[in-house]
Amino acid sequence: MSFMPTGTVYGVLLNFRAEVEALAPQMSQPPYKAPPQAPVLYVKTANTWSPHGSAITVPAKVPEVEVGATIGMVIGADSDVEGFMLMNDLSIPHASFFRPPVKFKCVDGFLGIGPAMRDAQEVADPAQFSLEVRINGELRQSVDFSQTVRSAAQLLSEVGAFMTLAHGDVLMLGCDAGRPLARLGDRIEISAPGFETLVNTLVGEQP
Fold first, then answer.
1. Fewer CB atoms < 10 Å away: N or C end of the chain?
2. CA distances, 48 to each of 2, 107, 196 (Å)
């Protein structure tokens, strides 16, 4: 039985330095005119959740999807971190990363969820996490979590300053720049030392 969240799953935008640097010119333009001061969150609703090993259906007329490989923090009973898990935060490619439209982020099945949670007591420092994305066996992206804008502890603290995370909620650590694109029929594997590999396959809608 694959692990599935029992609470709400939150994604965070702009938590990797490379993406912040790439988008810095846009942040000074209207309507915001400055970089965000607090973490920018979005929800991956329960209809998006796909367990490890499942096929994820891509809507008709969507030629490719963006792979958002990340690690999620599972919140414990005392608002601490109970564990960590691999996640694949899929999206339909879109231009805006400031307020991502729900129709691009919350498509049915568009969140692959790792097969098991890694206990937080096994993790000395989440900044040492690194993961690899393979599509059809080919390495397409490597992610180094020492390159986040906010560390896992800082992110948890800053989010906790304006909202309460409940037991069973999951807070993702963010997706790095250079996210690869995948198409129908592709097998996506996300792996990281100490974690069981997350695998999902993209399929088309049935006529």
1. C
2. 15, 6, 21
Residue 81 CB neighbours (<10 A) = 20
Spatial distance between the Cα atoms of 86 and 131, rounded to a whole number of angstroms: 9
49-76 pLDDT tens trace = 999 999 999 999 999 999 999 999 999 9
> The domain 9-204 is classified under which CATH number: 1.40.20.10, 3.40.50.720, 3.90.850.10, 1.20.120.330?
3.90.850.10
Burial 49-65 (b: 16+ CB within 10 A, else e): bbebebebbbeeebeeb
Domain boundaries, the chain: 9-204
Rounded Cα–Cα distance for residues 63 and 48 (Å): 19
pTM: predicted TM-score of the whole model, two decimal places: 0.92
